[in-house]
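Lab meeting, action items carried over

1. Structure of the two-component assembly. Owner: GW. Status: complete.
Input record:
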Amino acid sequence: MIRTTNLTKDYGARRAIDNLTFEAKQGEVVGFLGPNGAGKTTTMRILAGYMPPTFGSAQIAGFDVVEESIEVRRRVGYLPETVPLYSDMTVFDYLKFMADLRHLPNGDEMVDNALEMVQMEQRAEGYISNLSKGMRQRVGLAQALLHKPEVLILDEPTIGLDPAQVVEVRGIIREIGKERTVLLSTHILSEAQQLCDRVLIINKGRIVAEDTPENLQARLVGAERSILRIKGDAEELMPLISKINGVQDAKIRPDGAVEFQFAPGVDVRPEVAKTVINSGFDLLELSPVGLSLEEIFLELTRDDASTK
Amino acid sequence: MRNVWTIARREIRLYFASPIAYIIGLLIFLITGIYFVLSIYLAGQAAFTTGSTTAPGPDLVVGLMAFLLLFAVPALSMRLMAEEHRNGTLELLLTAPIHEWELVVGKWLGSFLFVFLIILITFIYPIVLNGLVTPGIDQGLMMANYLAITLVSAAFLALGTAISSFFNNQFAAFFATLAVLFFLWVVIGWPAVVMQGSGGIFDYLSMSTHFSSMQAGTVALSDIVYYLSLTGLGLFLGTVAVEIRRWK
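Predicted assembly:
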């Protein structure tokens, strides 16, 4: 559904994206993960038909984004990072304006459907200028969904929303992603984990990793990490934990918890729990620790630099 | 054309919701109204005191209108494209399945229809005048004058739309439009005055020369072609500006 080949974009002397090649299939939610300035927005703008690439090509549903830009734009729903809204219009009028530009035959009905999807039916007659940031985001999303596009491109769809709104918007995306191709950018790893079938990590305009969120974590860590909290002095427990077969690199963190690693497939956690209890300590917590995006990122960019 | 009309319709609605548009409209009516009443009064006084039989013609207000539009058009056109860019809504429009020219022409058409409405309302002056003078005003001259002001406003607004497409800042667009219109209306004709007989090309390029000729009642094809070409050039440059934004 989305296919890019050696996609490259230069802004003057600066290369924003460099030879990006990737694919996204129908019914797949692909996450674009990377820091600010990595090239996420540029790639999305090219795919949405907003700007042409300097080199390389991209196709959406088989149409070239440059040569058949209008066809591409008919098939793409795009939500830019800064939600583009006309604050002088009501929610309904704004969506109707977009429906008219897209020549939707039953515009009013399509607008109502889109509003229902983002749960904004009650605010249809309200002016956009009076909406909260979360509601504006939902109107932007309704605009992207209006024409039931085959491909949905969402640039940081949950940025700036409060936690309840984030949950709502994620729910909507998850629903849409069941049938259509969704490409979304984010810098929140947990969001990518919850929503995406596949994640592309992009740094300095290049894809540095591409996999499912779970595989990416496992591949990078090479070992699983857990933390252990007990009631009492962790220093006393440390020698016992270190002695357990399979436990690697056990240490006490500044917050008093014990952190340790073990090789994937050799789960030492039951043994650790038994040791704590048998030694007379009260076990408060034993939980896995995921890598943060920052850690994954540092890991990947370190690899990236060393292979150059 | 459907997209052009969709864009134009939104623009017209926006003008009717904008205080600036109302202020500009009111100022035009106020200034032309005072001028009209004063001219009629002075002509009446002259008839009484000196027995003059020279009545004001249908060109009475149209010349002043053109001068006022020189300032009003930059204020009306400055935000057309610059504001879309500033608000980020240009990204929305350029990712909708419409052509760049449809966007530019739609913006221009919306502003033109608004100004055309103002021009239509000023039609009240020749109608009143017609009732005041005997045997009525020269209808042909009146039509020539209104055709001239309509063509001038179309060309002014096309240039304003183009300039607004090049700028991100509305006020920069205002002053640039004002400068360009002033140049084409006044400055470009100066060499023709200095060079006298040999400055024909400058005379042809001057917007006011064509306007004066039409105001006097001579509607030449070259005048119409001149204004339509200038309108076409403005819309073309506006489209180029939008395309440049895409490629930047």
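2. GW to write a short summary for the group page. Key points so far: The mean pLDDT of chain B is 88. The radius of gyration of chain B is 20 Å.
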